[in-house]
Write a structure and sequence with these properties.
about 230 residues, alpha/beta, Rossmann fold, Arc Repressor Mutant, subunit A, 2 domains, four-stranded antiparallel beta sheet, 8 helices, 12 strands, about 40% helix
Length: about 230
């Protein structure tokens, strides 16, 4: 899961990045509202942790602008203010949840897990498309027609998760590279090609009709096939 942290307090952001990476989250960090909003608009993140007090553009404004652009990524808002009006303002701006500073690490992680569960399109944590089902807990790919299943690697899982979340759209190689490997990664587009090949082989292994189609010169699209 990829998290965007928008927080300007240096010590706080360093601590949060370290905690989240230890919990196996991928994290990108920005320290101001304008750059944070630009990162949100890339639409590659699963959850946004957004501080209220930011230079240039505060967290309320960032959340409002993101929602006005149709971006539905869950937002956990951090605030040093505990007054009810401030919390209501955050939720009305588009935040899904809020956490008052100072907070305990266990509570932060619990809130993130809760937001992650809300992203799943079924109560049992299974993402479905066409004749395939993707178990978000065990990283298992199954064919819903014949019952065959196979365990995916983390990268294969994230590729399929991203394709399912954007079904009906063509995803560029750049979008996939940034989503799976991150902005600061040295991964090249051939990494996308290699892992796309691996993922296709897993789909073939479970004999799914759902396919990953290459769109020449653009990228990839998930298609149901003849199911």
């Amino acid at each position: 899961m990829r998290i965007l942290l928008i927080e300007d307090e240096k010590r706080m952001s360093q601590a949060l990045c370290e905690i989240l990476r230890l919990e196996k989250y991928d994290v990108d960090h920005y320290d101001n509202g304008s750059d944070g909003l630009a990162a949100i608009e890339s639409n590659i993140y699963d959850i946004i942790i957004l501080d209220v007090m930011l230079p240039g553009m505060n967290g309320y404004e960032v959340a409002k602008k993101a929602r006005s652009k149709g971006i539905s990524i869950p937002i956990l808002m951090l605030t040093a203010k505990s007054e009810l009006d401030d919390k209501v303002t955050g939720l009305d701006s588009g935040a899904d949840d809020y956490l008052t500073k100072p907070f305990m690490t266990k509570e932060l992680l619990a809130r993130l897990r809760a937001l992650g569960r809300r992203m799943q399109n079924s109560a049992d944590g299974v993402l479905s498309y066409g004749d395939i089902a993707l178990d978000t807990n065990t990283l298992t790919l199954s064919c819903t027609v014949n019952g065959q299943s196979v365990r995916l690697s983390e990268k294969e899982y994230r590729i399929l998760e991203y394709l399912i979340a954007n079904s009906g759209q063509i995803l560029t190689r750049e979008q996939l590279a940034v989503k799976i490997w991150g902005f600061e990664s040295d991964a090249e587009y051939n990494n996308v090609e290699v892992y796309m090949s691996f993922t296709r082989k897993k789909l073939a292994f479970v004999e799914a009709k759902t396919e990953i189609k290459a769109v020449r010169g653009i990228g990839y699209e998930l298609r149901c096939g003849d199911v």
